[in-house]
Amino acid sequence: AWQRYVKALVGRYKGRITYWEVMNEPNTHLTPEAYLPYLKAAYETAKEVNPACKIVGVCSTSDLGGKPAPWTRRVLELGAWKYMDVMSIHMYGASAPENSFGQGSDKMMDFLKKELKKYGKTMPIWHTEKTYCTRTVGYSARKVNRPYVYEHSKVLPTKDFKTKAEYLIRESLLCASSGNGPFMWHGALPN
Predict the structure, then answer these.
(1) pLDDT (tens digit, 9 = 90+) per residue, 95-140?
(2) Number of H helices and number of E strands within the chain?
């Protein structure tokens, strides 16, 4: 069923979508051993349908209690590096980007590069999701009607909208300066 789904999806969007991320934050609900067959099957099937497509794998997160470093290390030990063209990660936290994981997002990206090098592999590493919430509303909140819960979320809090904006810019700069791929701001919490 999984391979039929991948074949239909990649076939339908061939020529329009090049990059395919295989599962969102699998470290929150799958072991590395359970994730690897999905990644391998998606890679092999997608490449059959569209050899030019790129598979984005791992996508581990620190959100929801996830521990991306040990999970990623283990999935790479199992051979995940053979079945992706880009590695992704979601480095959530409420602290400043240079303090993510007690060391900084750029240091986490360096850790991932070193893990890949153990297998003689280099590839782009993308930080494909992160956001912060504020206790105050920003410009967009005055323009649109949004649920009150976004302004009072206890998840990933920052002091105010200015701090949130500064953190997102600093995160982008850390990712760029460490020689990795893009940083993607997750905008589902639009304040």
Answers:
(1) 777 776 556 677 778 888 899 999 999 999 888 887 777 666 555 5
(2) 6, 7
Q: What is d(CA 188, CA 191) in angstroms, rounded to the nearest whole number?
A: 9
Q: What DSSP letter does each residue of 21-66 carry, written as one string?
A: E-SS-GGGT--HHHHHHHHHHHHHHHHHH-TT-EEEEEEEESGGG-
3-class secondary-structure state, position 11 = helix
Please indicate, yes or no, whether the overall pTM of this predicted structure exceeds 0.90: no
Q: Residue 132: CB partners within 8 Å, gap ≥ 6?
A: 94, 156, 157, 158, 163, 164, 167, 168
Distances in Å between the Cα of 9 and the Cα atoms of 26, 54, 96 are: 20, 14, 38
At 81, list the tokens.
């590096």
| Closest to 60 measured CA to CA, from 99, 32, 38 | 32
